[in-house]
Amino acid sequence: MKIDLTETTASKINKALVEGRRAVGTPAIGMVLTLVIVTDEENAYDALKAANEASREHPSRTLVVIKRVSRSPRDRAKARLDAEVRVGTEAGTGETVVLRLYGEAIDHAQSVVLPLLLPDAPVVVWWAVNAPLDPAKDPLGALAQRRVTDAYACERPVQELSARAETYTPGDTDLAWTRITPWRSMLAAALDQGPCTVTSAEVEGEEFNPSCELLAMWLADRLNVPVSRKVSGGPGLTAVRLQSSGGPIVLDRPEASLATLSMPGQPDRSVALKRRETAELLAEELRRLDPDDIYAAALKFGVDRLSDGDGDGPAGGGSGDPAGTAKGEPAASADGTPAKSASSGKKAPAKKAAGK
Questions:
Q1: Is the pLDDT at 92 greater than 80, yes or no?
Q2: Going along the chain, which residue ranges are E strands?
Q3: pLDDT computed for residue 252 by the predictor
Q4: Distance between CA 226 and CA 216 in Å, rounded?
Q5: How far is 13 from 3, CA to CA, in rounded Å?
Q6: Of all helices (H) and strands (E), which one includes residue 33?
Q7: How far apart (Å, rounded) are the C-alpha atoms in residues 11 and 123?
Q8: Which Pfam families is this protein grouped with (predicted)?
Q9: pLDDT per position as a tens digit, 230-254
């Protein structure tokens, strides 16, 4: 069922939601959270489609905020709100309200969204495009427990990671990080299969893909070893190579669905490592509402501390030693705790646990 409201208010939208639920025979509210999607008209369809698919696992009230640009000064000075209320099969397993803001209402989106939030339910804000530099200080972001961005949708995605690190607030996350969850799980499982000492690593993937940098920073932060970044033709991440005391460990994905895991003393094995759709990424992020400390540590490690793969300097264009490890500096222990500094006279090799 779909209800169109022109030049409306939040109270009229709430009334339409109640009427819609009664009309489709579901008067009770069975939703677990409020998902606020901030997007533009061009990307609204894809974002809403992903949210509807994710709602099968997380029934939610979805509020889509679309800020429409007014062409004339007169229209820009006039506040206007149009809404489209969807319930039943039109809204997945929850309910959806598409909000189109005009004029001065654009600068007060939080005032429109606040009366529509589910009472006593967590709030997640997802910027499908055009995320603010500091999501936690954005008026809409301030309403949420979790704030989801996507660096891949930015014009300069790798540089965006540095900005995210500077403004990180517990509760922030990025879909570029979510995309590498299968890679992190596979690498951690590979390192748990036998005792070994990792000495260096290389991450290979297409250019301008922030997931490659995040995976490299995660390895460098958890293992405290030099990690280089190598550019390939893609798609996405294509390979990770770990040099260890027992021999090379390689996770190679030349195509977008199947990868090959090579380990010393073991036959090569094929593993499923497909590129996931946005709906799967969003559903994963909605499973947890607590801060992601591992993401925070990887993000704050810094892109400029990665090697460019040729030994000529950092991948991020900054200065510093590859992976932030100076010559003679000790690596991390198995639990990810930094070992004692070189000045203490004791050294510890990098161990196998690549984070949990």
A1: no
A2: 2-5, 33-39, 60-67, 80-87, 95-102, 123-127, 146-149, 172-174, 198-206, 227-232, 237-244, 247-252, 258-262, 269-272
A3: 94
A4: 10
A5: 9
A6: strand 33-39
A7: 20
A8: OpcA_G6PD_assem, OpcA_G6PD_C
A9: 988 878 899 999 998 888 999 999 8
Q: pLDDT averaged over the chain?
A: 82
Closest CA to 117 of 4, 40, 31: 31
Mean pLDDT over residues 176-180, rounded?
A: 95
- Count of H-run helices and E-run strands, the chain: 10, 14
Helical pair 278-286 and 41-54, crossing angle rounded to 10 deg: 60
pLDDT at 344: 32
Q: CA-to-CA distance for 84 and 64, rounded, in angstroms?
A: 10
The predicted structure's pLDDT at residue 297: 95
Q: How confident is the model at residue 350 (pLDDT cuts 50, 70, 90)?
A: very low
Please give the helix or strand (H or E) that residue 147 lies within, else none: strand 146-149
Q: What is the pLDDT of residues 150-170, one digit of tens each?
A: 998 888 888 889 999 999 999
Q: What is the 3-state secondary structure (H, E, C) of 235-295?
A: CCEEEEEEEECCEEEEEECCCCCEEEEECCCCCCEEEECCCCCHHHHHHHHHCCCCCCHHH
The Cα 141–Cα 8 span in angstroms is 24
Token code pair at residue 62: 């979805």
Omega prior to 235 cis, within 30 of 0 = yes
> Cα-atom radius of gyration of the chain, to the nearest Å?
23
Alpha carbon of residue 189 to chain centroid: 22
Which has the closest alpha carbon to 1: 14, 16, 20?
20
Q: In what order do the strands lie in the sheet with 227-232?
A: 227-232, 198-206, 237-244, 247-252, 258-262, 269-272
Contact 151, 126 (CB under 8 A): no
Q: Which two tokens stand for residue 127?
A: 């910027």
Specify whether the CB–CB gap between 260 and 252 falls below 8 A. yes
Per-domain residue ranges of the chain: 2-149, 181-274+302-344
Q: What digits encode the pLDDT tens for the residues 330-340?
A: 333 333 333 33
Residue written as tokens 């500094």?
Answer: 341
Instruction: Look up residue 337 and give its two tokens.
Output: 């705790």
By percentage, how much of the chain surpasses pLDDT 90? 51
Residue 286: which of 129, 136, 148 has the closest Cα? 148
Give me the mean pLDDT over the 261-284 stretch: 91
For residue 263, pLDDT beyond 80: yes
